[in-house]
Amino acid sequence: MRSVGFAIFLLAILIRVSLATDGDWLFRILGSVETALSDNWKLNFIYKSQYGKEGEEHNLFKQDYDIGLGYSLNDHWTISLNYKQEYERDTEGWLIEKRPHINLKYRWQWGPFRLENRNRTEFRFKENSDYVTRYRNKLSINIPLHWLMKQYNLYFANELFYNLNDEGFNRNRFYVGFFRNFKKFKPEIFGFWQYSEDDPSWVSEFILAFKLSLKL
To answer: With the CA atoms of 207, 212, 215 and 216 taken in that order, what torsion angle do they form, in degrees rounded to the nearest 10?
Structure first.
């Protein structure tokens, strides 16, 4: 019961913050399925849908599919090759973006905390837009909540976005989330504040997300 109460408390805070945030706020629903091909190789599929605020209604305006093959070099390093295809609603229909990406993750333990640094390079081929290569760096810290149960975790993360063209650094995200590890699945609630460059200034958004991860 304490875990349910904490999840409801965190969700209430995130919703309250989203209502108080200047500018738009969005919803995301995510799902992922991972299966082990061997001790070192894993195959992963991720689906995401995003709903944006238009007046008093939230409409689906973006969805994407991501499939990746990952290899664990050792207990700390993992590398993966992924292909992502994104669909974004436009006034005349859906625009398609093809986005292969390479990921290199490093995980380590610091006392009771688990940390991860993910380095991602994306190759973005977006319909009606110029090609862009983008680098993303995400640093996360997981905090086990032993007063609930060992499987419960609170986490914080910060992610930087850097376009390898004239734009340079143009986005930052700060995350806070809560998840519970079961044997085969992991439900997760998180929110993040996104700050994006929109010449001549920066704009902010709050995104509230729900995710379910399955391991086969």
So the answer is: -130
